Amino acid sequence: MNTNATLENSPTGAGAGGAGDAPLVEAQNLRVWLPTGRRDGIQAVRNVSLRVAAGERVGIVGESGSGKSVTGRALSGLLPTNPRVRVEGSIRFRDGEEMVGASAKDWNDVRSRRVGMIFQDPLTFLNPVMRIGRQVAESIDPRRVDLPVRDEVLRVLETVGLTDVETLVDRYPHELSGGMRQRVLIAIAIAKRPDLLIADEPTTALDATVQRRVLATLDDAVSRLGTSLVLISHDLAVVGSMTDRISVMYSGRIVESGTTNEVLTAPKHPYTQALLRSVRSLTDPDTELWSIPPSLRREIDEHVALEAKEDEYEA
Ligand SMILES: Nc1ncnc2c1ncn2[C@@H]1O[C@H](COP(=O)(O)OP(=O)(O)OP(=O)(O)O)[C@@H](O)[C@H]1O
């Protein structure tokens, strides 16, 4: 049986909900197909089930191309707008409607009230021709972007460790360093006090020292707001230090889920075991290639194919 069948809440995780709590967000049997040159496109996400309790922090780890980002984008309704993108299964926020198949307007509503996003490359997310202050203000309240929210904008920017904020609000994204831009992105994401933050490789593009500081800022902001966090990263050390639970993805599937401690200290799935070993033997830190030997990779592929068959049979 696939280990993602039951995804228990961390009994020790900070703020994790109890067993009877309705999750803040729950994806069930999520399946996503994306268009490619091939006629049917590719299935990037295969039967992913994931639940995040209020205040809980869940990490999604796996190699490049395993489906982490597509899962994160599906959870935030930000998959490419292309009629050939197909999503099946279920995504529900607490007290909300089914979001698979929901309109762009419904997703906008959910994002503006409940979900903040932080992506790897702030320049693609920030508006290059809009001053920083206005971009943060729009996140606080898209209808009130003038003076009344200025104090709040300054406060949010200070919250994420930025200084000289009176000057900063009048600057444009290209005038800031990478670390500053990433902090602005965190500010924009937390300004509306979302229930859930989805951070997809939030610091990968930064150098190691800046990365640590920005992660500490994110950690601090999430703790203070009591926000739930989905942290997507190929970096097990980062995810291990910031989450209550971890789901490991391989070939579009969640192959193992458990408390962070369980997954890191007693991994059950051969892929997680290989992943943990390969972290220590990564040869080129600039790529996301994991040094899993081909014979072991074949074994893992066979194991995962067998699990997929079992899941299909059970369904
Ligand atoms: N816009 C897109 N159009 C077509 N295929 C896509 C698109 N985005 C992702 N894919 C494909 O979907 C699969 C999953 O990609 P995804 O980006 O979710 O992986 P990932 O685990 O997040 O990897 P990375 O860490 O490199 O971002 C990959 O095969 C990828 O090539």
UniProtKB/TrEMBL annotation:
It is a peripheral membrane protein. GO terms for biological process: peptide transport. SUPFAM superfamilies: P-loop containing nucleoside triphosphate hydrolases. One of its GO terms (cellular component) is plasma membrane. Its main location: membrane. Pfam families: ABC_tran, oligo_HPY. This is ABC transporter ATP-binding protein. It comes from the Bacteria. Residues 1-21 are annotated as: Disordered. The keyword ATP-binding applies. Residues 25-276 form the ABC transporter domain. It comes from Pseudoclavibacter endophyticus. It is found in: Cell membrane. Belongs to the ABC transporter superfamily. Residues 1-12 have a biased composition (Polar residues). PANTHER family: DIPEPTIDE TRANSPORT ATP-BINDING PROTEIN DPPD, OLIGOPEPTIDE TRANSPORT ATP-BINDING PROTEIN APPD. The keyword Membrane applies. Keywords: ATP-binding, Cell membrane, Membrane, Nucleotide-binding, Transport. One of its GO terms (molecular function) is ATP hydrolysis activity. InterPro entries: AAA+_ATPase, ABC_Ni/Peptide_Import, ABC_transporter-like_ATP-bd, ABC_transporter-like_CS, Oligopep_ABC_C, P-loop_NTPase.
